[in-house]
Amino acid sequence: MTEKADLTGKVFGHLTAIRKWGKAADGHTKWLCQCDCGKQTSVTTQHLTSGHTTSCGHVKRDRNHTIAPGYEAKRVDGVAVFLLSDKRKKRIDNTTGYTGVKKTHYKNGSTHYVASINVAGVHHHLGTFNTIKEALEARKAGEEKYIPKNKRGDKHDASKRS
Ligand SMILES: [Zn+2]
């Protein structure tokens, strides 16, 4: 079981676990989580670690979901840029907190940032960079390249209809 796991600072999709937040009715530990859209929510350990819950609810709940492209574009244009100037809030482990940008550590100890984008279930590698700023720029360029213009602003990913 993962009930005793300390999730503090861990990132689950859009959510970062802040601290324990009591217990759910079924006895599972709940975590107060900061969603990257700015809202806070409480989620059980199980739902976080299983990938069942990856946002405060602003993303349609679907464990196999691809984030609607329009949503990602907005985040890069708005929230992500804002966050660049507010590093205090960020908890870093293997993820940067920015959609599509992951941190990678080389054997020589240097840190690089890998940009990628998922569009309609297809993963596109956008490159590896020395700075997060470059990776974010690549990510933004990737959105320009891979996300069809008419998709932007859509909150629902039409390609995920089942
Ligand atoms: Zn949210």
From TrEMBL:
<feature type="region of interest" description="Disordered">
    <location>
        <begin position="141"/>
        <end position="162"/>
    </location>
</feature>
<protein>
    <recommendedName>
        <fullName>AP2/ERF domain-containing protein</fullName>
    </recommendedName>
</protein>
